[in-house]
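Exercise 7. Given the encoded structure of a 638-residue chain, write a plausible sequence.
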């Protein structure tokens, strides 16, 4: 087969262009990316050869680096799993996530990219970083267990060529024909063995396979010649087995970047060991940023790798962490599991469950400690991962008390920063039994909600929640420090203050005065609502809609419908403010003529504006507009 030429996907060309512009000060990372790819390929070969003898090799699994000064090439080779022709086409000519909305946004947003070039790292573009330092990239690969080899070559400008090739053994070599060294442009001389060695030490020291390079041994005496020797450049030490005092923060950070493929340092590191009947060590990291697809990707993805006695077993080990902690990255190394452990075994295994329990506790403890001690970090963390943590509140009651310690939310008590439940309870009168909250889709709209008027007037704090998951976890009968969660837009609320008896007496009187009007309004609105009641929570607005205790909120109904469940419409309750001029005017109208047809129109207007005030949608906007127009005409001509 002769060479075939392929065009890059348009996005790939754009990305290459942008990457070269935005990462020029950080070109050295190409080596880390290529060594990480090689190390992954070696992991795959080692793992697959446990069950497939044909993939075994006598040779030591390793990464080799070779430099040719004259030809200006640096070659990175591995004897890992290799790729077939089709895999080269699928993996190397395309960018996996190129079709996604996020990717298109990224490409459009040049300025954002210039500020944080590391965003590129999220899209699995490691291989393309070769073009940061090379004018031409040649990849020759042979899949383990097969004979033929495939060559891929490109100058990174629009197209690439694929042809048949030869390779003595299985594995992959990437030959970089380097751009001229240019210190000002961030290009070191990557044919200099010392430069290469220092980059390996810096970025890839802990890679568990030897990274080898030929090194010159200077002549021992005048009559002798200089010789060369294969040297291993990395210490290969499993970083999680070393005592934290021997490992620098930089080394931990580089290790994190190696396993997570993130391009920025992690936010927090969590090291833990389990001792006793089960033995395992874990080195986990909380990233700074959520991957763009954290909330809509395959929920079985996890960020934790499983090792058994320092041997890599698998990536994304979903048995080690519950799905809500899928953003945690790291390594777990077990002393007890068998090396040929399978997914089925992991699912049944009691030790694995015990490890998971331990890890969850450690992670949640670390999160809560961060909330108490590092408020700034925590705000940033919560913005990225808060919704995931709250998913944990749907996983059964076992961890709820602890997870609630982690929850922070916007609050009516402070419009500049979020508040924790701990703050909320500490600042409320001891005898009060409720934690009040309001949930919806936008914090701004929630802050202006009529439901909050009575709470504001009495100085009662209400927490505001607007993540999609909030609507769901708040439906559960949860308590925090024995206080129960109560929605400010649900059922009866108890807003009585010190002059409780006085308030109650006044309420009762007003209720009696208005009772006939309320019944009449209710009958006019019987298709829309359950009942019209006198409100205790309104001070400024004339009316608001509330959900009866025990009923599903409109947002929850929407979620259930979106998930394909047939849901009957739940009717809500219209609460009216007995002190409001609109209600007083209606009261007089009703007294003069209980059958006045205007009462029916006003009932519709009252209901419509209550719905609009909470950001809801009118079922018949044209009819509502007609009523408003009539009202304007009669007011203007009065
Ligand atoms: P990522 O590694 O984030 O998926 P890359 O662009 O670095 O993105 O690599 C794309 C894919 O190409 C990898 O997922 C892997 O399947 C394949 N690949 C890259 N380098 C090698 C290698 N040295 N050996 C085998 N496969 C490789």
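Solution.
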């Amino acid at each position: 087969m002769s060479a075939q030429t392929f065009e890059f996907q348009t996005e790939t060309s754009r990305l290459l262009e942008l990457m070269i512009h935005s990462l020029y000060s950080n070109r050295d990372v190409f080596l880390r990316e290529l060594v990480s790819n090689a190390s992954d390929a070696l992991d795959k070969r080692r793992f697959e050869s446990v069950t497939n003898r044909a993939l075994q090799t006598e040779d030591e699994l390793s990464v080799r680096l070779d430099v040719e000064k004259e030809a200006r090439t640096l070659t990175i080779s591995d004897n890992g799993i290799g790729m077939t022709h089709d895999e080269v086409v699928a993996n190397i000519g395309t960018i996996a996530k190129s079709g996604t909305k996020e990717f298109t946004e990224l490409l459009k947003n040049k300025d954002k990219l210039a500020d944080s070039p590391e965003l590129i790292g999220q899209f699995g573009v490691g291989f393309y970083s070769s073009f940061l330092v090379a004018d031409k990239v040649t990849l020759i690969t042979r899949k383990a267990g097969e004979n033929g080899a495939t060559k891929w070559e490109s100058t990174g400008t629009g197209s690439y060529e694929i042809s048949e090739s030869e390779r003595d053994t299985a594995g992959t070599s990437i030959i970089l024909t380097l751009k001229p060294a240019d210190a000002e442009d961030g290009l070191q001389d990557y044919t200099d063995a010392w430069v290469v060695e220092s980059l390996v030490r810096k970025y890839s020291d802990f890679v568990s396979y030897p990274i080898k390079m030929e090194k010159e041994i200077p002549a021992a005496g005048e009559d002798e010649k200089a010789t060369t020797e294969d040297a291993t450049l990395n210490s290969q030490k499993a970083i999680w087995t070393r005592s934290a005092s021997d490992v620098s923060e930089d080394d931990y950070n580089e290790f994190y970047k190696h396993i997570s493929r993130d391009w920025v340092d992690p936010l927090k590191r969590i090291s833990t060991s389990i001792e006793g009947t089960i033995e395992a060590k874990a080195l986990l990291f909380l990233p700074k940023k959520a991957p763009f697809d954290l909330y809509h990707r395959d929920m079985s993805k996890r960020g934790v790798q499983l090792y058994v006695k320092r041997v890599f077993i698998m990536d994304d080990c979903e048995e080690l962490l519950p799905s809500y902690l899928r953003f945690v990255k790291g390594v777990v190394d077990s002393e007890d599991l068998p090396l040929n452990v399978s997914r089925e075994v992991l699912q049944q295994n009691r030790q694995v469950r015990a490890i998971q329990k331990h890890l969850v506790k450690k992670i949640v403890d670390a999160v809560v400690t961060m909330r108490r001690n590092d408020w700034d970090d925590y705000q940033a963390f919560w913005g990225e991962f808060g919704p995931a943590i709250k998913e944990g509140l749907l996983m059964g009651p076992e961890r709820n008390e602890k997870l609630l310690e982690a929850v922070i939310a916007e609050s009516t008590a402070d419009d500049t920063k979020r508040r924790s439940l701990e703050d909320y309870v500490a600042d409320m009168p001891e005898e009060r039994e409720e934690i009040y909250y309001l949930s919806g889709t936008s914090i701004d709209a929630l802050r202006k909600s009529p439901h909050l008027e009575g709470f504001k007037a009495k100085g009662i704090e209400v927490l505001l929640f607007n993540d999609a998951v909030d609507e769901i976890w708040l439906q559960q009968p949860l308590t925090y420090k024995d206080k129960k969660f109560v929605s400010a837009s649900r059922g009866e609320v108890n807003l009585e203050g010190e002059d409780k008896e006085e308030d109650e007496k006044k309420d009762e009187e007003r209720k009696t005065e208005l009772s006939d009007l309320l019944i009449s309004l209710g009958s006019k609105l019987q298709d829309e609502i359950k009942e019209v009641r006198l409100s205790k929570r309104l001070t400024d607005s004339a009316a608001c809609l509330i959900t009866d205790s025990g009923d599903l909120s409109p947002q929850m109904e929407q979620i259930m419908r979106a998930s394909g469940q047939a849901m009957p419409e739940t009717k809500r309750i219209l609460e009216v403010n007995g002190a409001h001029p609109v209600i007083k005017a209606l009261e007089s109208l009703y007294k003069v003529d209980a059958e006045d047809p205007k009462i029916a129109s006003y009932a519709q207007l009252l209901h419509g504006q209550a719905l609009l005030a909470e950001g809801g949608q009118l079922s018949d906007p044209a009819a509502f507009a007609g009523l408003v127009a009539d009202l304007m005409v009669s007011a203007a001509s009065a």
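Remark. The two ends are 90 Å apart (CA to CA). Students should compare their own answers with the one above.
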